[in-house]
Amino acid sequence: MPPEPEQPERYDFEYKRNGTVNLFACFQPLAGWRHIEVTERRTKADFALQMKNLVDVCYQEADIIRLVVDNLNIHTPSALYEVFPPEEARRIIQKLEFHYTPKHASWLNQVEIELSVLSRQCLERRIPNTETLTSEIAAWEKKRNQQKASVYWGFQTKDARRKMQRLYPNLT
């Protein structure tokens, strides 16, 4: 529509979405280590491949890897059995110990804080393609790992018992 008299010409901006990607994040807060993997999708197969990488590359010397994950339907040991032969799935799962955040409480997962930092420091603008995104995240990750940056976690067990009384039995 033409502008009103004595009004400047205006342009309507239409947001054009160029696609989406998924970010898988691994975070070891006490060591100040993180790894972010950019994937095209977020499927059980993608999750299973991330778990295999965690076991075989990132923590190959570890006896047990404790995972804190939310209740997303792909965050299950069964995802590995859907992707790998049973022997391989079992080998990977034996090194993983799953801990699930309560429903509607993914904020208890420290990696969510780290993803918030990533978002503020690296993703606050439009990124034109997956290659650029992957490169920028890798640079951010490298810098944060060199700094051994961690998160301040002030949420204590007593706070959890108070905030989520229905989930914790009264021990007194």
Describe this structure in words.
- It is a single chain.
- This protein is of the alpha+beta class and 172 residues long.
- It has one domain (22-167): Ribonuclease H-like superfamily/Ribonuclease H (Nucleotidyltransferase, domain 5, 2-Layer Sandwich), CATH 3.30.420.
- The protein is built from 6 helices and 4 strands.
- Strand 1 and strand 2 (33-39) form a beta hairpin.
- It starts with 21 loop residues before the first strand and ends in a 9-residue tail after the last helix.
- The model has no long low-confidence stretch (mean pLDDT 88).
List strands and helices in order, with pairings.
Layout: E1 22-28, E2 33-39, H1 44-58, E3 65-69, H2 78-83, H3 86-93, E4 96-100, H4 110-122, H5 130-147, H6 157-163
Parallel strand pairs: 3-4
Antiparallel strand pairs: 1-2
CATH class: Alpha Beta
Order of helices and strands: EEHEHHEHHH
Computed Rg: 21 Å
β-sheet strand percentage = 5-15%
CATH architecture: 2-Layer Sandwich
**Within the largest sheet, what's the order of strands?**
1-2
Short structural description:
With 172 residues, the chain is an alpha+beta fold.
Give the tags.
single chain; 172 residues; alpha+beta; Nucleotidyltransferase, domain 5; two-stranded antiparallel sheet; two-stranded parallel ribbon; 14% strand; globular
